[in-house]
Amino acid sequence: MVLDEAVAVEQSPLILRDVATPLPKPGEVRVRVHVCGLCHTDLHTVEGDLAPHKRPVIPGHQIVGVVDALGSGVANHKEGDRVGIAWLHSTDGSCEYCGRGLENLCVNGRFTGYDVDGGYAEYTIVPAEFCYPIPDVFSDEHAAPLLCAGIIGYRSYRLAGIRPGENLGLYGFGASAHLVIQLARHQKCNVFVFTRSEDHRAHARELGAAWTGRAEDTPPEPLHAAIIFAPAGILVREALRVLRKGGTLALAGITMSQIPALDYDLLYHEKIVRSVANATRQDGHELLQLAGEVPLKTEIEVFDLVEANQALQKLKKSEIRGAGVLRVGTGL
Length: 332
Ligand SMILES: [Zn+2]
Ligand SMILES: [Zn+2]
Known about the structure:
By secondary structure, the chain is an alpha/beta fold. 24% of the residues lie in helices and 24% in strands. The strands form four sheets. Strands 3, 4, 5, 8, 9, 16 and 17 form a seven-stranded mixed sheet that branches. A six-stranded parallel sheet has the order 12-11-10-13-14-15, sandwiched between helices. Strand 16, helix 10 and strand 17 form a beta-alpha-beta unit. The structure holds zinc ion (2 copies). The site of one zinc ion (ZN) has 5 residues, from loops.
């Protein structure tokens, strides 16, 4: 499913087209894609909220499949290995950020389904060092949302600095938040979920939320940390309003509408607001290991690859419960 030009997803911009099967270069592997998860970033790519990089481009960066061809020099994988591919496609390994363990901020970082073709396709290419083993407890479909929703959720959770037993606020309750709440409950945190959707509030309660409400509501106790998943800048003010002294507010999205002017009182007492950008391979390996241990339950709605436009339209309207996953190889 190829994107030539970014337009509103209601116009079904992704087109089913035959493209040449890609060949792995030295150090790369080719993966035969089984499934690819849907992410809000795909929607931002398709609709042009993110500056266009590669055109045409095949979106998709929560890929599970099997290694099907090896470039020269690849020693850590063999044909038939089940692997996952995430948003971080490659880095230079040599810039100051890579040197400081912040490869997520690499100045030459390239991203799957954005700078290079991704997983809304039967085959894709990835550097051998940038794919992940998938724990056996997960089916392909249930593993897919771990690869971005899970990994970004995990990094956001880590950077929010929440400790066991503390109060965590989650704003928005989609694919990422429904995994983070399970991590937080596993660590005995009290989770307060803020979302407009009554369906999502009910889902949050099923997954152990101590309280649910709307962003303008006040939870029964103030928060030690919070994560905003919804791309609405106004939520920053609402979250700071109920954040304790010294608490961290992490912003998980790749885009956000303008953040309104704030009274300094809302930020004073050493509150921290920080964004979360991409994730490192270490985040990916840690999340996948933890996901198998908890084990995280991914709730999914499965679509055929050819339904990618309709699936993204549902994602845009918050009509997918949990995470959307495209199954490749049926309906083609
Ligand atoms: Zn770098
Ligand atoms: Zn993503």
